[in-house]
Amino acid sequence: MSSPSNVTFPELTSNPDESYRTNIIACAVITWIIGAVFVGLRFYTRGMLLQNVLGAEDWFILLALVFAAATCAGMIEQAIYGLGKHALDINPDLMIPMARAGWYTILWYLLSLLLTKLSILLLYLRILSYQHARYYAYAILAIVLLTNGLWTLSTVVTACLPLAAFWDKTSYPNAYCHPRNFWLGNTGLHIGTDILLYVLPLPVIVNLQVKLRQKLVLYGIFALGFFVCSISAVRLWDLVEQYHRSDFTFDNVSIAYLTCIEINAAIACACCMTLKPLVSKVFPKFFSGSRPSGANVDTADLEAGSDKAARHAERKNSPPTIGSWPSKRIRDEEKETWISMYQRDSDSLELRGGLEGSKRPQ
Q1: Contacts for 318-323 with beta carbons within 8 Å, 24 or more apart?
Q2: Distance of CA 100 to CAs 159, 164, 276, Å?
Q3: Which terminus has fewer CB within 10 Å in the chain: N or C?
């Protein structure tokens, strides 16, 4: 890659009628609405349909949505100041407030991603009954807190010393600011933890004794997670390329699009993992016939591949196993699985529907 000093930039152009500002605002609003719809469906499913099984993971994703709204609002604010227009057509007095809004947008963006990952990991710890998988989840949780939490956020709040130099470099000519490798490294850390996050449950899904259709649904959900990873990778490439673009307010609009898409797609993916009861209610035949007859409700869908593991899973009072090793017993309320975590609630919904039908006048 050529260094910026060896790059010859074309001359800046001016065209006041050419602008992407409306596109930025539309992208920010539409993507956030999509994320909000998924969060609303999640809270309806877990709060009303399942009669309040809300946990910490749900409140974390709600907080992630709040910071996603702040991120999108920051993008809109930058567009109002001039992002999306040619640099020559922007009032110089608006450059500082636009850069300040850019710093806050970065902060809200990182917080939204962090909270989304914490929500997914807390959900894993609720529904994964294999003790080995739970150990891995705790390990990834520690990695996320150290990298995407402590390190990344520390990098942002110390972006420049003093911080005001981040948006007003001319007033602080001797200020220290982190080199661009810090920001590229932070994006790389996010991609790395994303991959760990979505790879973790795949071995568990492989051993599920359910219909192929349901396995494909689960794989599809995690394929959405890797779609988020691909967005992050494209955004990283765009961040690298922005240093070779002279008309930075006009040519780097794609970064604004990808930022809004990434955070809200991550939220939507995290919510898709909890919407099985709602899909079962709207499409009752979709998940029907998946339960092995006579199997225990809490562990039937996480029977391991070996016969000994299956016998452990079928015993009502035995903890689930992986391979031939019995896992450590966990609390009953935590024994939920990818497929069967809501089966008891679906059964109760059917029972209530039958009781209501019996009460109707003949």
Answers
A1: 319/129, 319/131, 320/129, 320/130, 321/130, 322/130, 322/131, 322/132, 322/133, 322/207
A2: 12, 8, 42
A3: C
The angle subtended at Cα 298 by Cα 295 and Cα 303, nearest 5°, is 60
- Which domains occur in the chain, in start order? 18-281 (1.20.1070), 291-328 (no CATH)
Backbone angles phi, psi at 291, to 5 degrees: -90, 125
Q: What is the pLDDT of residue 27?
A: 96
Read off the amino acid at residue 262. Answer: E
Q: Tell me the whole-structure pTM to 2 decimals.
A: 0.76
What phi, psi does 322 have (nearest 5°)? -130, 130
Helix then strand then coil, in percent of the chain rounded to 5, is 70, 5, 30
Burial-class residue 258 by CB neighbours within 10 Å (0-12, 13-18, 19+).
buried
The DSSP annotation for 105-150 comes to HHHHHHHHHHHHHHHHHHHHHHH---HHHHHHHHHHHHHHIIIIII
Structure confidence by residue, pLDDT tens digits, 136-161: 999 999 999 999 999 999 999 999 99
Query: If we measure between CA atoms, which residue out of 182, 165, 183 comes closest to residue 174?
Result: 165
Which among 265, 41, 225 has a CA at the least distance from the CA of 124?
Answer: 225
Residue 208 — left, alpha, or beta (φ > 0 → left; ψ -120 to 50 → alpha)?
Answer: beta
| C-alpha 104, offset from chain centre | 20
So what's the pLDDT on residue 193? 92
Could you give the residue ranges of the DSSP H alpha helices within 207-336?
A: 212-241, 248-251, 253-272, 276-282, 307-314
Q: Are 326 and 318 in contact (CB under 8 A)?
A: yes
